[in-house]
Amino acid sequence: MPSSVNGFGTKYYGQRDFRPDGSYLTTKFFCLAFVPVIPLHSVRVIPDPKNSSVPFSKNYYAILEKRWPHPLQVLSIYLWAAAAVGMGILFFWKIEPYIKERGLAGTRNWVETLLFGVCISVPIAAGVLLRILLRKRGQPQSTEPV
Question: Does 140 score more than 80 pLDDT?
Answer without folding.
Answer: no
